[in-house]
Design a protein that fits this description.
9-stranded mixed sheet; 159 residues; alpha+beta; globular; Nucleoside Triphosphate Pyrophosphohydrolase
Length: 159
């Protein structure tokens, strides 16, 4: 596990990874915006990473909340849209805090987990060009988000 904060090539920083109660998300989002959710999908000692079509690197599935959507609803929807995995039984793991650079701002992301017994077929789409199972004990490759990799490692330690 890396010492926080850690920075990616673009200058974005993972500032903190906090275990909080899911019921605290509303209060936290009143202090710092929480526009998105991530999902750590685990199977057989590895975590699912998607190759993002826009950022051109491996990262965790997840994305922006739609108006009126809870963090959990966004996580379920984004997981389905980006991978084809229909999982309603996500476990809330933590909140990741970021310092982002374009534009400069502070954001929180809700982090959820799901442990798969069987891997369903994964669906390549406009957002996720490919999938890979990455063991969090392995080094982070140059084409992987070091921030998402660290979130995956920390979420896996919670189970």
């Amino acid at each position: 596990m890396a010492v926080l904060p850690i920075r990616d090539r673009a200058g974005n920083t993972l500032v903190d990874f906090r275990v909080v109660a899911e019921g605290d998300l509303t209060r936290l989002s009143e202090q710092v915006p929480m526009p998105a959710s991530l999902v750590v999908v685990a199977h057989d000692g590895a975590v699912l990473m998607i190759f993002d079509s826009r950022r051109k690197h491996w990262e965790l599935p997840g994305g922006m909340r739609e108006p009126g959507e809870t963090a959990r609803q966004a996580a379920v929807r984004e997981l389905r849209e980006e991978t084809g995995i229909h999982a309603e039984d996500l476990t809330f793991a933590a909140v990741a805090e970021f310092g982002l650079v374009r534009p400069e701002r502070r954001e929180l992301l809700a982090v959820y987990r799901v442990q798969l017994r069987v891997v369903p077929p994964l669906t390549v789409n406009d957002e996720a060009l490919d999938f890979r199972w990455w063991p969090p004990t392995q080094p982070v490759s140059d084409d992987m988000s070091p921030l998402d990799a660290e979130i995956a490692r920390r979420a896996e330690m919670l189970r």
